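Dear Dr. H.,

I hope your travels went smoothly. While you were away I took the liberty of generating a structure for the chain from your last submission, since the lab meeting agenda had it listed for discussion. I wanted you to have the full record in hand beforehand rather than looking at slides cold. The sequence, exactly as received, is reproduced here:
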Amino acid sequence: MNRLSERLLERRRAGYVPVIPDFKMISPAEGPLFSGRDVLRAAKALEEAGAPALSVVTEEREFGGSLNLLSDIVKAVDIPVLRKDFIRTVADIEETARRGAAAVLLICSCLDEAALGSLYRAAISCGLEPLVEAHTAQELRRAGNLGARLVGINNRDILTLERDGGTVSTTSALAAGKPEGAVLISESGIRSPADVRAALAAGADAVLVGTAVWRAEAPVSFYRELSAAGGATV
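The corresponding predicted structure, in token form, is as follows:
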């Protein structure tokens, strides 16, 4: 079993919050996150701490990522890896699959109806799980109309490169519109165990956290705190 959604549900059944660490080299809002840090060692440490999956941002100009980073992390761990980027073409989907990712992000706000549907079908055809990301109620309905089974609510506005200061309140406002049968991930703007609990209370099944983990004094220990926010002892 290496489907991202199944790993998330398995972690939840074990009594933990499924927390996906986001490997984002640069935060457009807060600057470099990995200066002097061994990325692959960090990936292995979080896998050992119970991460059910990892997320890798491959956009280069604003977020400092790369496809080579994706490939390297995929090879370093035995858990599913999500590729996050501004995916716009079937060629992007095919390259994601070649790099060994298990899932790919499709952002509603960056794609019209036809493109979103085409890329969603291409991802499935390539053996990838599409994570369909919404930031508004309308976009969440688009994900549901598509039949998406893995859905994200980005608490921040990706069109501003997440500089808008969004919080988990976005998930709280939108999660009731979660498509039936979907696994819902609250993404970005999550900084504490209290934020994790708020996301779960709203109806999220999992959370994706980047900056807060890498800004923590002890990232792995902080990751364990987030994972235990649902009541588990880590």
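Two observations you may find useful: The longest strand covers residues 129-134. The chain has one domain: 4-227.

With kind regards,
E. W.
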